[in-house]
Specification:
Layout lengths: L13 H16 L6 H31 L3 H4 L3 H12 L22 H14 L13 E2 L2 E2 L2 E6 L5 E9 L13 H8 L5 H14 L3 E6 H10 L1 H8 L43 H8 L4 E8 L14 E7 L11 E3 L2 E3 L4 H6 L9 H4 L1 E6 H9 L3 E12 L1
Parallel strand pairs: 4-5
Antiparallel strand pairs: 1-2, 3-4, 6-11, 7-10, 7-11, 8-9
Length: 391
């Protein structure tokens, strides 16, 4: 027989070790000859037999419960559980599939077009519906850059459509007059310029007033038109990319508050470990259902902050004395929890001396994070976009 310590007796409980010692003594007293080759073959046969019987039992129980064969439809245990959830527990229209490019991916507006619409809105004296306000309006099965209904003194309501045309995309005849160049750009596709003219004519034939601006004309007006020059002289509005739901996902987080701590007299250091937090949250916590409702900046229908349940893109101002910051911020390929944007971006190790404007954080966060942040005296200055989900 091999020495008894080769059976890892140090890992056995007292009861297990007592049973082992009796078995081992009986083997020695009976002059049992340990043949490693025979033992390893016997072990492998027994191991495979146990695995086969266990797998057959698992397959039988799973088919009785889930009513499908996990061995033919799934590769892993987690995929089998997910398949069971989808087939037997997930109701119709419960989980919304996010469209490619996000919920506003189809409504893309250039910065120049939004700046022109800001100018037109200021000149008009009322808000123009755009991608940034309540979303682009759909008219005659087409999205338009801007839309406004203007009520005149005589009570007539004028329906205005604002269209901004990029010169390259729409093949401006002033910027690209050469027919060979225009044909090379569009390839086998219909002429964008002619299609743009047809769309404009369609809107006008249905009673809409169409105000158009070509990118080259807008650039010229900003340099030479006094009205444009005066407006943009004091124009300070800054724009950020649309809300991306994945920006709110930050992954696992660790933070070493102490690299080395010695217990003082009368002080105890305790170890606290959270077990199975991820499955606990999946089982116990609320999950969003269906597609969200999108609220843009200054939307009067936006619910109060305390009732938010989704994801928001916003600008906040943290206090300067919060010991454990709440909101994550991504910069320099790192996940940080700063109280000052500029300090984080410059990786400053000095005492912060920046202004409130330099300290502001702009990011995408989940509503529960924002609720806790507000309790910690972090100020929500404004939001650019908010997706409200049903839980």
């Amino acid at each position: 027989m091999p020495p008894s310590d080769t059976y890892f007796t140090s890992t056995m409980s007292v009861k297990e070790k007592k049973l082992f010692e009796k078995w081992y003594t009986d083997q020695v007293n009976s002059n049992y000859t340990f043949n490693f080759k025979e033992e390893i073959i016997s072990y492998c046969i027994s191991d495979v037999q146990i695995l086969r019987e266990a797998l057959e039992s698992f397959r039988k129980l799973f088919m009785e419960t889930a009513e499908f064969d996990p061995l033919t439809e799934c590769l892993t245990l987690s995929s089998a559980c997910m398949a069971n959830f989808r087939k037997n527990h997930l109701g119709r229209s419960r989980i919304g599939i996010v469209p490619r490019g996000g919920y506003r991916g189809r409504q893309k507006s250039s910065i120049e077009s939004l700046e022109w619409l800001d100018y037109e809105s200021d000149k008009l004296g009322q808000t123009i519906q755009t991608n940034e306000t309540s979303g682009e309006k759909r008219i005659l099965n087409r999205y338009v850059d801007g839309y406004a209904e203007v009520t005149h003194d005589n009570g007539i309501v004028e329906k205005r459509i604002y269209q901004y045309h990029g010169c390259y995309f729409h093949l401006c005849i002033k910027c690209i007059p050469d027919e060979d160049s225009r044909r090379r750009i569009r390839g086998k596709n219909p002429c964008p310029y002619e299609r743009t003219k047809q769309t404009t004519q369609l809107f006008r034939s249905e009673g809409y007033t169409v105000i158009e601006k070509w990118a080259c004309d807008f650039a010229h007006d900003r340099q030479h038109n006094p009205d444009y020059i005066n407006f943009f002289k004091n124009y300070t509005k800054k724009r950020t990319p649309p809300l991306n739901l994945r920006d709110a996902i930050c992954g696992g987080r660790t933070s070493a508050l102490y690299t080395h701590l010695k217990a003082k007299p009368g002080q105890k250091i305790k170890f606290y470990d959270v077990c199975s937090e991820y499955p606990h949250c999946q089982y116990k916590m609320a999950y969003p259902e269906g597609h969200p409702t999108i609220f843009l900046e200054n939307d009067p229908l936006t619910p109060p902050v305390e009732h938010w349940n989704g994801v928001l893109k916003a600008t906040v101002l943290p206090p300067s004395d919060l010991y454990l910051p709440v909101l994550p911020y991504k910069c320099n390929s790192k996940l940080m929890f700063p109280l000052c944007r500029t300090c984080a971006e410059t990786m400053s190790q000095d005492v912060c001396s920046h202004t409130d404007e330099q300290r502001m954080l702009t990011g995408t966060w989940c509503a529960p994070e924002m609720h806790l942040a507000l309790k910690k005296n972090i100020k929500l200055l404004h939001y650019m976009s908010y997706t409200n989900t049903q839980l």
